[in-house]
Amino acid sequence: MFTVAQAPTGSKSSLYGHLHEQAAGLLTGERDFLANSANLSALIFHALPDLNWAGFYWMKGGELVLGPFQGKPACVRIALGRGVCGTAAKEKRTIVVPDVHAFPGHIACDSASRSEVVVPVIAGGRVLGVLDLDSPTPARFDAEDARGLEALVALFLDATDLGD
Q: Model's pTM, two decimal places?
């Protein structure tokens, strides 16, 4: 049984360092991307403060399709270039949105969401999916969150069979 350890108080870098250590332990010995994405989304949701959604969308048939997540039910399919997730996937870059209501074409799956960060999952130059986090707090995410989450996605890719 895996227990989510209480995150240290202090800087975001120490928070993400602690989360990275927990994720490494959680993913060790399991290569299945679906199992690992389910566990990683649960870990992130319970370890990071002020989230109301954390999960993955995976590329299938040229669009993003809902994968493992924690939070309220979500939009099932997202076209490339649509919303924050579709834009991050199309542009192959992390997007931090301080106010989702100001983002053109934002898809409101949960009306409580006020800010969002989306990290593309890329292997061999190909977008395989995205990691999406939402918060009910405006401007919850910043560049430090983006770096910490990008490191978690890199760890995830190294630990799974997704990019194989």
A: 0.94
